[in-house]
Amino acid sequence: MNLFHIQSTLQEIDWTALFLENNFIGIGWPATGDLENEPAAEWTEQLVQRYRIGKTELSDVLDTLHTFVYIMQDGDYVLINDDEWAYVGDMGDYFYDDSNGTGEEYICHRRGVTWLGRIPLAELNDKVLELVSHYSIIAKFEHPISRAQLEPWVSITSATTEEDKYYSVRVDEGTIQEALNVLKNALQSEKEDLRIQAATAILQYAKS
After folding, report:
1. Read out DSSP for 12-54?
2. Exposure of 165 by Cβ count < 10 A (0-12 exposed, 13-18 middle, 19+ buried)?
3. How far apart are CA 55 and CA 78, in angstroms?
4. Does domain 3-149 have CATH number 3.40.50?
5. Could you give the C-alpha distances from 85 to 69, 103, 134, in angstroms and in order?
6. Where in the chain is the domain with CATH 3.10.590?
7. Residues β-bridged to residue 86
8. pTM given for the model
9. Do 26 and 110 contact (CB within 8 A), yes or no?
10. Residues in the chain with pLDDT < 70?
11. 79: how many CB neighbours lie within 10 A of its CB?
């Protein structure tokens, strides 16, 4: 499993809220068409013809497209951020969606994302701060993912509210263990309905 950061402001448009609300990430250059069904050798011609990209920029753009389509994988983690928070997600496969058009105001190259939580930027360690501060549209975390120390923020049961519908609620491991101990004790209750409720809750937690 790898960790990536992707810029969510493209063509001077901030896509952060849309990415979070609609559970995807994406990159620009929509008029190239579906890159997965187009040989990589033809990407250069498409970029030059449709976007008149010069040689200096072309290499960086090709690297970005290649990373998004082929290097990122289903199950990898991705970060996006705004001025206060970094948002952590589990990525799905690449797909191309031009149902709304191929103008620069649309994001057609996409990957689905299951958002797992958010982290205050101030809580990120130095290595992850370096990742989210990288100038590239896509940057890869060049360390074992365990060094990112994301576990306290994403390995939890998420809960949502109307005001905060796509953020995970942080619950520390000690509290979770204490709650499980209460449920285990309830299994010994003389009240049958309480034993059933406790058993159901424990099984639901085990499946989550």
Report:
1. TEE-HHHHHHHTEEEES-GGG--GGGS-GGGHHHHHHHHH---
2. exposed
3. 29
4. no
5. 26, 29, 16
6. 3-149
7. 81, 119
8. 0.72
9. yes
10. 155-175, 193-194, 196, 198, 204-205, 207-208
11. 24
